[in-house]
């Protein structure tokens, strides 16, 4: 058969098509394997080795193709066995923990830490290769891998690597010292800036991977604090006792700063220096009790459930209180130890629900963590679990990032937040020069709330806010105005008061922000105060036209963006 120019072109075309088929087949298999490691499914893990074997001969051909996919395929082959190893080990340990028989020696842990660190590094390198490939859009039509492997997920993996590589430090395995972690229970029925009143805590001490736990009343430290500490002005005005104590140390709305203050009070009162401060609200304890069921304390003839946990632990204390009494510490200690026993005996389904609940509360700002080890604390901040400020000014010309954080402190020495509602209507009017806020804040007491409510409310907003007016009813009231220049914020503080016979109280607060030139996008972050959910309604007008209208329950941080 004569090889004509026309036939030669046809054969060349077939050759190119053949190479493209090999190329796309390799790509499909490679990315399919790559997608597997990001799933914890046991069935999918079994495909790792099979996928690697199937793709090897095709990848060999692909190495010689002038495409980045060759490098991508090689990276997949390298990372697949390590992924299988890491996830299999993790799943095995998880299964042992759920059964209550997890045992890991130091050698196993060190080996896992090394593999995990190398695995994350390889995954990150693989992602960079994938991102650099110019035909990424074509890949996503076949496999939506970008939904699984994106920069946010990679940052999360890098954070997990930092935690795992610090396991020896966390468990005090190498340096012949112990670690001390304080878990503070915050009573959100008496709301405070980081969640609730500090009533009791558990102290966890770890050395060589062995832990001991003890439970304490917050008032144990009052007598050990030397000298006088001047309290924040609102605390002094409300209580008129002239001193600052550990029980009021969570005053700063930035939990990292409150954790430093708590640590200072602990150290000054001769307690062990903390390596971490963890704060969780009674709301989290309630959810855990819903999962594991009631806790029985036979000695005190108490059955503690999610419906009565606060009343069960505190009303008997009040009835049996006298100076020097050890009744409360003993009661709290027995409850804590029995709670841990029931948790350890929980079945697999209950433990999984508890893990899910804790993660949800970390993400919704019901639990805060502050490490005093810089690398770990940075990881916690990246995960959003540090209780810090979420505000960041806009960096793009034509955008404006607004911010509002309402932080309330109940200073009435009561638990009226059990039966108090707060509803906010926020009208934002954007004209040629300004962004003006008109806030209407309505407080209402529901039965069985009795007595007066006294709270100090702080509104945190961008530093360039100005022209403030605060009214209660028809009367203009005084307010505190502070600049927090380090964080680029302005703070407005105002007192909220409801008399015993008053069911509703309303505050009207207005302020303005300068409008940047050529404003294209208005963004606002509403940050949620831990322990306090409330209804928030937002209306945004631009040059007289309604552009946004939304009402929601603020049970987490909310971000909205409005195109103008």
CA radius of gyration is 29 Å
Structural class, please? alpha+beta
Low-pLDDT parts are: 1-70, 134-148
> Ends: how far apart?
70 Å
Anisotropy-based shape = globular
Main beta-sheet annotation: 7 strands, mixed
Strand content: 25-35%
Q: Helix count, per DSSP?
A: 15
Mean pLDDT: 80
Helical coverage, percent range: 25-40%
Q: Quick one: how many beta strands?
A: 20
Q: Taking strands numbered 1, 2, ... along the chain, how are they ordered across the largest sheet?
A: 13-12-16-10-9-18-19
Write out key terms for the chains shown:
564 residues; alpha+beta; seven-stranded mixed beta sheet; six-stranded mixed beta sheet; 20 strands; 28% strand; globular
Sequence-ordered SSE layout with sheet pairings:
Blueprint: H1 5-35, H2 42-45, H3 47-62, H4 69-99, H5 106-132, H6 136-142, H7 151-164, H8 167-170, E1 179-187, E2 197-207, E3 210-217, H9 233-239, H10 255-268, E4 276-281, H11 282-292, E5 295-297, E6 302-304, H12 309-319, H13 327-344, H14 348-363, E7 367-371, H15 374-383, E8 399-410, E9 420-430, E10 434-445, E11 453-462, E12 466-472, E13 475-476, E14 480-484, E15 489-498, E16 504-514, E17 521-527, E18 534-542, E19 545-554, E20 558-563
Parallel strand pairs: 1-4, 8-17, 9-18
Antiparallel strand pairs: 1-2, 2-3, 4-7, 5-6, 8-11, 9-10, 10-16, 11-15, 12-13, 12-16, 14-15, 17-20, 18-19
């Amino acid at each position: 058969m004569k090889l004509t120019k026309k036939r030669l072109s046809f054969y060349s075309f077939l050759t190119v098509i053949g190479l493209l088929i090999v190329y796309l087949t390799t790509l499909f298999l490679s990315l399919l394997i790559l997608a597997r490691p990001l799933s914890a499914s046991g069935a999918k893990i079994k495909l790792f080795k099979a996928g690697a074997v199937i793709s090897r001969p095709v990848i060999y051909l692909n190495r010689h193709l002038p495409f980045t996919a060759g490098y991508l395929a090689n990276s997949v082959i390298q990372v697949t066995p390590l992924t299988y190893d890491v996830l299999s080990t993790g799943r095995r340990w998880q299964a042992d923990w759920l059964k209550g028989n997890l045992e890991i020696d130091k050698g196993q842990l060190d080996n896992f830490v090394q593999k995990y660190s190398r695995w994350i590094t390889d995954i990150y390198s693989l992602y960079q290769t994938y991102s650099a490939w110019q035909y990424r859009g074509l890949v996503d039509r076949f496999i939506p891998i970008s939904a699984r492997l994106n920069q946010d997920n990679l940052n999360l993996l890098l954070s997990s690597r930092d935690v795992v590589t610090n396991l020896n430090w966390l468990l005090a395995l190498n340096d012949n010292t112990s670690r001390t972690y304080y878990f503070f229970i915050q009573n959100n029925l008496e709301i405070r800036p980081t969640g609730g009143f500090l009533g009791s805590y558990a102290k966890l001490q770890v050395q060589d991977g062995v832990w001991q736990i003890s439970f304490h009343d917050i008032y144990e430290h009052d007598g050990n604090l030397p000298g006088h500490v001047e309290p924040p002005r609102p605390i002094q005005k409300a209580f008129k006792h002239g001193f600052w104590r550990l029980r009021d140390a969570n005053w700063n709305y930035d939990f990292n700063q409150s954790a430093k203050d708590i640590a200072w009070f602990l150290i000054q009162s001769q307690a062990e220096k903390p390596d971490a401060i963890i704060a969780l609200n009674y709301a989290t304890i309630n959810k855990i009790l819903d999962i594991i069921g009631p806790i029985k304390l036979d000695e005190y003839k108490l059955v503690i459930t999610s419906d009565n946990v606060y009343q069960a632990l505190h009303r008997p204390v009040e009835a049996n209180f006298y100076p020097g009494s050890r009744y409360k510490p003993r009661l709290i200690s027995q409850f804590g130890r029995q709670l841990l026993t029931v948790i350890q005996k929980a079945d697999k389904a209950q433990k999984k629900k508890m893990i899910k609940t804790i993660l949800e509360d970390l993400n919704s700002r019901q639990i805060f963590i502050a490490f005093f080890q810089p690398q770990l604390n940075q990881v916690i901040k990246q995960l959003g679990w540090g209780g810090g400020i979420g505000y960041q000014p806009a960096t793009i010309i034509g955008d404006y990032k607004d911010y509002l954080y309402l932080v309330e402190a109940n200073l009435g020495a009561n638990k009226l937040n059990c039966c108090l509602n707060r509803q906010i209507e926020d009208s934002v009017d954007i004209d040629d020069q300004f962004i003006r806020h008109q806030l209407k804040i309505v407080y209402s007491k529901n039965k069985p709330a009795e007595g007066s409510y006294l709270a100090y409310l702080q509104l945190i907003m961008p530093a360039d806010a100005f022209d403030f007016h605060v009214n209660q009813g028809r009367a203009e009231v005084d307010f505190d105005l502070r600049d927090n220049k380090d964080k680029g914020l302005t703070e407005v503080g105002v007192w909220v008061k409801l008399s015993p016979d008053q069911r509703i109280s309303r505050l009207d607060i207005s302020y303005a922000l300068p409008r940047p030139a050529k404003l294209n996008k208005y963004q606002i972050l509403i940050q949620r105060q831990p322990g306090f959910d409330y209804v928030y309604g937002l209306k945004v007008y631009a040059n007289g036209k309604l552009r946004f209208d939304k009402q929601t329950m603020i049970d987490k941080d909310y971000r909205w963006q409005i195109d103008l």
